Amino acid sequence: MLKRTTIISRAFLLFGLAAIIITVLGGRFLFVQVSQEIDDVDLETLANERWTNNEPLEGERGSIYASNGDAIAEEVTSYTAFAVLQEGYEGAIDDPAETAQTLAPYIDMEEDRLAELLTSDQFQVELGAGARQLSFEEREEIEDLGLEGVHFRPEPRRYYPNQAFASHVLGYIDRGTDEAVMGLEAGFNQELEGEGGSMSYQVARNGVPLPGNEEEVNGAYDGNDVHLTLNSNIQLALEQAMASVDDEYNPERMIAIVANAKTGEVLAMGNRPSFNPNNYEDITNHTNYAISDHFEPGSTLKMFTMAAAIDSGEYDGDEEFESGTYDPGYDHTISDHNNGEGWGTIPFDEAMERSSNVGFSKLVNEVMGADILYEYLDRFGFGRETGIELPNEAPGVISEGDLDAMYTGFGQSSAVTPMQQIQAATAIANDGQMMHPYIVDHIENTNVNETVYESEPEIAGEPISEETAEEVREQLVEAVYGDNGTGGAFQVDDMSIAGKTGTAQIPSENGYLSGHGQNIFSFLGMAPAEDPEIVTYVAVDRPNLSEDEQGTQPVSTIFNTVMHQSMQYLNLQPDESPGYEEEGTPEADSIELEDVTGDRSEQAAEAVSEQNLEPFILGEGNRIESQYPFAGEDVIGGEKIFLVSDDNWEMPDMTGWSVRDVVKFSTATGMNIEHSGTGYVRDQSLEPGSEAGSHDSVAVEFAHHEEEDENDEQEEEETDEA
After folding, report:
1. How far apart are CA 305 and CA 181, in angstroms?
2. Per-10-residue mean pLDDT, the chain, length 722
3. Which residues fall within 8 angstroms of residue 603, CB to CB, at 6 or more apart?
4. Which of 379, 411, 612, 697 ranks highest by number of CB atoms within 10 Å?
């Protein structure tokens, strides 16, 4: 009986313990069921994280477009290589040492470092910056190595299809950090940069998505597209011309800007040294000289000094001054550019044409005063940023004081940027209205197909009157076409040019650099002269010139090429430039010129003659390689048509040729022409019949028939006296 009682007691004890355990566990399960937490860990969240796959969605960076819609910076698909290391996992690295030895040269990594990565205790590893943003061709090269365990994933990569095209304007994206560096890429990074999203879905133990499960998507947003005012054709012509000058003259640097005089739109902008944004590792110059560098401009600033003098009402163009040298006091002597010889007593109206430093310093010191000059320089926007939509614009430095004002008047002492000169020149081109320069036309949000920003032409000020602007343009025309003008090299076929040359001295520790070619040579010009549509600035810094070459040669190669191309691409109508007024030329119906390139020389000459034109064959080749004027252009009966059959030819006798003929010859052959005077060719530096080529230069002197007759009579009188 006692034994039975003991058994029953034990049973009740066990039952009680079981009940307590069940109660505790049940309570715990109930607590977990209700709270869904264990030790402050949310079980639902833990389950979701374990059985949910999250994939990032990339927002694509916006593209940058030229004015014609061509993409000049865009996203393309690239590939990043990575290695799976987990042993036993299908597709893992099989032999780390051999893989490191084979792969290292393809991803620019030391073999030892790669071997260390491939033997680390991780499931998979990234293979460094050299394995990122690989092109399709680079991926194929690595795949052809047959390396087990090396895999690829697609990623966006920034690509610049036109290579060095406007590279300092665009900037670039650093592949290692994905950071925007310089240019519009950096300045408009917030607008261009996309916003990432994600996609999540439930998966089974093997990672396969569960059937019937809905995906949760947080959409990504693409960055905005930025559309520029840059004209692809003009920019390309500028890049090619600058590359040609770079090859031939190897200058320290070059700067060029082309702008619409009526609106302020920047049509082209270039720098040298340049770089390819796709291979930015080779960059040697991070500075956009067109906006971020200021320097003493030289004589291009004289047009603004003259505008100040005229507009202030203090100017009398007929008043005369003694050129050569000028001692204004202050223990300084100012000299004209011809070693201080000058041209005797001349009127102020000739100061621009002859580029007289003495004349402009006297205008400042004796005619209008330093205060008026500084007031007008401020009106023209010098000394402050233009506000163009590019980062790191320099404000320039305008000097102070009476002596500095005299030097500033002819382009020394004060420092300005090329973009400031372009902006100020629009006032002279645009009848007194100065246009704010801009390079961004509009910005598009492609997610909703909406224009979120649109530029409009903006008047930056009216520093001078319409009458002043017109008078300054007339003086600038004389600087190009006048008998004593310094800008004769900048005459462009069928287009009148108004502009001013500049030869800026470069400061050094011991004053200014000296020696042949040790200057910044420039030209600031506009066309057509009577009502300009285009303003262009070109500067070439310390080109390698031979002793008989002038700084205008590399500058005019760029300027003339760009202006000619701009005329075509902007559909500007040819005008009658002052240098092309041919005496006694009768009006005639125009003739559309046939294309004779590729024809035999004799047949080409015959075809041109049948059009009532004068063929002029250069070279001894059997077939015509090029012609000028070009096929399809309108010409006048009796015009010379230059047909080039070879790279070398005999120098023609140019006696009696018009300026138009000489310019056509220069365009057809690539030969540089240095000329003086107006009218018809009277003398040339290269003897007729001597061997010549496109890299040669020839000096040509023009004179009117009356001058030739007077010279002949004078020579006869001198002969009789002898």
Report:
1. 38
2. 65 74 70 59 56 66 92 88 81 85 88 86 83 84 88 85 91 88 94 75 56 65 94 90 92 97 97 92 92 96 97 95 92 91 95 96 95 97 96 95 95 96 98 97 93 95 97 96 92 90 90 90 96 96 92 94 84 64 44 87 88 88 87 79 85 82 78 63 86 75 56 47 42
3. 596
4. 411
CA distances from 5 to 2, 16, 19 (A): 5, 16, 21
Angstrom distance (rounded) from CA 448 to CA 420: 37
Q: Which amino acid is at 407?
A: Y
Q: What does each C-alpha distance from 245 to 242, 517, 668, 673 come to in angstroms?
A: 5, 14, 17, 16
In this structure, are residues 191 and 223 in contact, taking their beta carbons and an 8 Å threshold?
yes
SS3 of 579, please? helix
- Taken in order 129, 135, 141, 146, the sign of the CA dihedral is positive
Please tell me the distance from the alpha carbon of residue 69 to that of residue 61, in angstroms, as a whole number.
17
CA-only gyration radius of the chain, Å: 37
What gap in Å lies between CA 534 and CA 266, rounded to an integer? 10
Helix, strand, coil abundance in the chain, percent, nearest 5: 35, 25, 40
Q: Tens digit of pLDDT for each residue in 136-176?
A: 888 888 988 888 888 888 877 888 988 889 999 999 999 77
Residue with tokens 């299908």: 90
Q: What is the pLDDT of residue 554?
A: 95
**How many Cα atoms sit within 13 Å of 156 on the Cβ side?**
18
Structure tokens at 222: 């693409």
Q: Render pLDDT for 49-98 as a digit per residue (tens, 0 to 9).
A: 555 666 666 678 999 999 988 899 998 888 888 888 877 777 788 888 88
CA gap 54, 465 in Å, rounded: 67
Cα within 13 Å of Cα(252), Cβ side: 10
Token pair recorded at residue 207? 């990672």
pTM for the model stands at 0.70
How far is C-alpha 693 from the chain's CA centre? 30
**Of 397, 378, 335, 396, which is closest to residue 360 (Cα–Cα)?**
335
Q: Which amino acid is at 177?
A: T
Among candidate residues 356, 361, 363, the one with its CA nearest the CA of residue 342: 356
Strand locations in 238-355, DSSP E? 253-260, 266-272, 320-322, 325-329, 332-335, 345-347
Identify the CA nearest to 311 among candidates 365, 368, 268, 362. 368
How buried is 208 (Cβ within 10 angstroms: 0-12 exposed, 13-18 middle, 19+ buried)? exposed
The DSSP letter of residue 433 is P
Given 78, 299, 414, 556, the catalytic residue: 299
